[in-house]
Structure formats: C-alpha cells, structure tokens
Q: What sequence folds into this?
C-alpha cells in the first residue's frame, strides 16, 4: 500500500489527529461531517471524519483513467508518480524526474530504456490529468 500514490488513496472515513483542544459542537465543521467518535491520547485529539460523497466521487473520477492502463504499465505510471511526489514540489523539470532513474531501474530491471519510459509516463500522467505540462521540460502537479 505504501507504493500507492496519494491521488489513488480515496478515503471514505478518516481519523484526523490534532493537537490542542477539541472542536466544540458550536464550532463550524470544515468540509466534512464529524462522526460521533472522538478521543484523546498523549495531548492529541483523534477525530473520525466522514468524507463528503461529492469529494469521494471527484477523487474517484480523477483516478478512474488508471483502470484503462494495463497492469504492467500501471506499475510504471504509479512508480513515476510516487517519485515525482517525493520531490516535494508542485513544479518540477523532466531532469528532476530523471533523478529517479536508478531507483526505477531497480524496480523494473527488464527495461533498458528507463529515461524514455519516465518521459513516456510523464505524458501518460499528463493525458490522465494528474500532471500539467507547462512548457518544454517543465511540469506541474495540479
């Protein structure tokens, strides 16, 4: 599961940890309904939040095109997306994506054209709407 990118993780219910005081019943909620479960532990407050159906449907709609990619290709696509996420930036260059060449080479030892495959997967991610192509060699996570 740790190789599944954040975009493909669709939560229906989520536990949120926050420090400080709990939200009082009179305080407005922030985009989600709070379930009745709330507890404390080591100074943290744990709340169970039900994600609104519209948000769940929208996230599912965004990752649904992954279904159309073969299992073998999907592995490459998700591995490249995970690598890009680890850059920690919304804007990045193709050269920055190439920095993961050795890592991807280890994950996919049968492929002898890793740079070409990275570039191809950036285009696949662009076509799926998971990346934006800004200009030659420059990309953005939406």
A:
């Amino acid at each position: 599961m740790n190789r599944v990118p954040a975009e493909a993780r669709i939560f229906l219910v989520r536990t949120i940890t926050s420090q400080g005081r709990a939200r009082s019943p009179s305080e407005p909620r922030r985009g989600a309904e709070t379930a009745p479960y709330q507890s404390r532990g080591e100074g943290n407050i744990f709340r169970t939040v039900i994600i609104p159906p519209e948000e769940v449907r929208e996230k599912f709609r965004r990752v649904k095109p992954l279904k159309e990619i073969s299992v073998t290709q999907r592995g490459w696509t998700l591995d490249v997306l995970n690598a890009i996420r680890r850059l920690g930036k919304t804007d990045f260059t193709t050269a920055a994506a190439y920095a993961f060449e050795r890592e991807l080479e280890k994950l996919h030892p049968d492929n002898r054209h890793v740079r070409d495959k990275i570039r191809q997967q950036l285009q696949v991610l662009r076509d799926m709407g998971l990346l934006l192509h800004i200009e030659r060699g420059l990309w953005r996570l939406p």
